[in-house]
Amino acid sequence: MKSLLSLRAILVTGKGGVGKTTITAALAQTFAGMGKRTLAAEMTADGISTSALGAALGVEGLSETPIDVRENLRATLLAPTLGHKKFLEDVLPMKLLADAAMRSAAIRRFLMAAPTFPEMGVLYRLLDLVRQTRSDGDWEHEMIVVDLPATGHALALAQIPSSLLRIIQVGPIANAVKEGLAFLLDPEKSGAVIVTLPETLPVSEAIELAAGIREHQIPLRHAFLNRVPNDPFTGDERRAMAELMASLPPTMGVRTLDRIARADVARSRFATGVKTNVTELPDTLHAGPDLTMHIAQTFAQTLAQEAVSPVGDHEARR
Amino acid sequence: MSQRPPDFPPVIVHEPTFLDALVSTKKVIVCCGAGGVGKTTTSAALGVAAAARGRKVLVLTIDPARRLAEAMGIPEAARTPSPVPREKLTELGIPANGELWAWMLRPEVVFESMVRGLSDSEERTQTILQNRLYKHLSQIVAGMQEYTAAEALYRLSTEGNYDLVVLDTPPSRNALEFLEAPRKLSMFLDERVIGVFLPKKRGAFWAAASSLIDTVFTRIFGAGFYQELQQFLGAFSGMFGGMRSHAEAVRTLLTSEEATFVLVTSPEPSALAEASFFKSKIAELDLPFAGYVLNRSWAYTRGFGAPSAITLGDSVDPALHTALPKLQVLAAEETARAKRDRRLLLDLRAQTGNDAAIATPHLGGAIEDLRGLAALAQNLVKLEPDGS
Fold first, then answer.
1. Distance from B57 to chain A by nearest Cα, in Å?
2. To 10 degrees, the CA torsion angle through A151, A9, A297, A17?
3. d(Cα B170, Cα A88) in Å, to the nearest integer?
4. Which of B4, B79, B290, B304 is the most exposed place for a label (fewest CB within 10 A)?
5. Are B59 and B44 in contact (CB under 8 A)?
6. How far is CA A37 from CA A75, A180, B207, in A?
7. Candidate from B270, B298, B365 with C-beta closest to A21
């Protein structure tokens, strides 16, 4: 996991319902706990938030301007409006004109409703947040962890910049898109992580997602296998039990036994298919901010181990 | 590990549920919910259920993931809906008048047929279809899916080819975009917005607005591209009225008695949170809400024996003696989950006011084929094996 520490932005991807938002929150909390000024961001191209990230962090009402969660940790919605505004300010010769443009209902509607413009607004906002500095010249946010929309949409989003560049090749939009792409594709600065569950379909989709991410040349830095069921059996015990269960009518406990078996298969398929380092997280009954805290503790321990043990750095041996 | 039939454990519905009336009478059923809760399989299973009632059903998915096609055995890149072969339906006991079709929405196809349908001449059709911007827009998936889903729903439900369209929406946040797409589309297509981009608008107000917009857009797009954009919008301008009336028709359809919204959720707290967020959104938009499907629940334990009832003889594998107490621990966890899920189901029933919530069992592995879908359909509605 420690290769994540040097990045400026981490894009958390995965199918819906796999715990993406919780992992986003936990990563942000871990980095903040290590003293990094961290921003957790929920991406929303239409400006509508489910407040899931806020719930995972134990705060209410995320807005487009970052709010303080605790020391070193802020949270925000990554929405198009401020990105559009900043873009107009950067491009138009006078701030007055940019303000007038943003006040114009026609232009505002166009930016929000024309296909691909909301998404580009989000990208520009991310760039702006990455670049912001404090009065002492340091980064305002050293690390930004972004909770992306579910699988299919993450890939659809990744398609936009290069597609847009094909039709708008010169001018301010092209420049902004090029800058955004350069940032997203720079392995020193940004990277994607994948979250999935140890079940058949989620692992298949995660492997497809990994391939899609690579196709768009976005660096894939890490993967998380979430909610791995606890296996209390030895190999012999499990074999014998599975055999016994197959000969009996349905018994309580057998569905969990099957789930453990599926998790084993899924784990090895994932390891070979996703081609990056995988951190496993146990299935627990925790929920909400409590769950975030538990996962953040696991992350902190993993990072501490990697820091002291050269063997712990399996990333270097990939 | 052990191989079991896909309908294990068998929790077949013997009394009509709230979904029974819907699959028999509605024209549109929209399945919504958080990601990963089984919306696609639920939509497909409702499709199977309606076909079993002798209706002609189309299951339409706008989920960019490719699962429905695989489960239903239909070609992935089809330009039009594909039928599930008759022999497969017969195998599932679906009567001769029942038909099941499926389609994965392809925005570029929907767009093209919309242009053809609304264009006043072949020349105009070609001007648009050959336009560089048009090609770009029709190939972009993000955003366009939501615009085209509404248009597709309009077309498929008004053409009268199907008795029922079951719509599988993308995960919640994007599904909201779909609900808002008709409104957003008409907002975008408002003449006051599009009009200012078009060359030679008259009137002082328009002149002022146009001049600001000209300045801003020439600056950001560059003069060449801005002209191209104006040409594109100009070529399209005759169609805006038609597009807007489609958008309004979809809105009318979705708020009418003929449509209904089913919320699919899993027992996960985050999925439930999204479901309640969604329910308030459905109410806010004045859409008809039918009820909940609590998917992959552990609520059903009927027919399951307790591990404590197992007696091990002397001749069994010695590993079983240490394994059995461990299975009992797992069984206790399952019992706890079952209690939680039953409580959840009661809560959801109470929320609807008319007990409109149903739980489907945790089927273990993924549903991968039609047989699995048919098994799930039996968990959702009352389907007698003889088709009566």
1. 25
2. -10
3. 32
4. B79
5. yes
6. 11, 22, 48
7. B270
Measured in residues, chain B has a length of: 388
Cβ separation B310–A251 shorter than 8 A:
yes
pLDDT of A314 strictly over 60: no
Separation between Cα atoms, residue B247 and residue A241, nearest integer Å: 58
Q: b/e per residue, B255-278, with b = 16+ CB within 10 A?
A: eeeebbbbbbbbbbebbbbbbebb
Grouping H, G, I as helix, E, B as strand and the rest as coil, residue A12 is strand
| pLDDT exceeds cutoff 60 at A301 | yes
Residue from the list B9, B213, B225 with its beta carbon closest to the beta carbon of A168:
B225
Nearest C-alpha neighbor of B152 from the set B312, B28, B337, B18: B28
**DSSP-derived secondary structure letter, B311:** -
Helix (H) or strand (E) holding B101: strand B99-104
**Buried-state track B111-132, b at ≥16 Cβ within 10 A, e below 16:** bbebbeebbeeeebbebbeebe
Copy the structure tokens of residue A211: 């391939």
Whether residue B39 contacts residue B31, with contact meaning beta carbons closer than 8 Å, is answered with yes
Note whether A109 and A6 are within 8 A (CB): no
Per-residue pLDDT tens digits for A37-73? 999 999 887 666 767 899 899 998 899 999 999 999 9
Query: Using CB atoms and an 8 Å cut-off, which of residues 292-311 of chain B contact chain A?
Result: 298, 301, 303-307, 310
Task: Region of B73 please: left (phi>0), alpha (psi -120 to 50) or beta.
Answer: left
Phi, psi torsion values for A232, nearest 5 degrees: -85, -10
Terminal CA-CA length for chain A: 13
**pTM across the whole model:** 0.84
Residue A168 is nearest to which of B2, B221, B268, comparing CB atoms?
B221
Q: Does A94 touch chain B (CB under 8 A)?
A: no
| CB interface of A with B, residues 119-148, below 8 Å | 119
Cα-to-chain-centroid distance, residue A33: 18
- Mapped onto helix, strand or coil, the DSSP state of residue B382 is coil
Measured at the alpha carbon of residue B262, what is the angle toward residues B260 and B266, in degrees to the nearest 5?
175
**Nearest-angstrom CA–CA distance, B152 and A307:** 54
Complete DSSP assignment for B304-320 = PBPGGG----TTS-THH
Q: Is B360 helix (H, G, I), strand (E, B) or coil?
A: strand
A135: amino acid identity, one letter? S
Which residue has 């809560």 as its token pair? B347
H or E stretch at A236: helix A235-247
Count of CA atoms in the C-beta half-sphere (13 A) of B30: 32
Cα angle value B330/B332/B336 (rounded, 5°): 115
**What ipTM does this complex have?**
0.78
- Residues A274-296 pLDDT 10s: 989 999 999 887 888 999 999 99
A 264-303 residues with CB < 8 A to B = 287-288
Half-sphere CA count of A181, side-chain side, radius 13 A? 16
Using the predicted structure, report yes or no on whether residue B2 has a pLDDT greater than 50.
no
β-pairing verdict for A38-43 and A220-228: unpaired
One-letter identity of residue B241: G
Write out pLDDT tens, residues B196-212. Answer: 666 655 556 556 666 77
Look up tokens 């020349």; give the residue: B123
Place of tokens 């050293």: A142
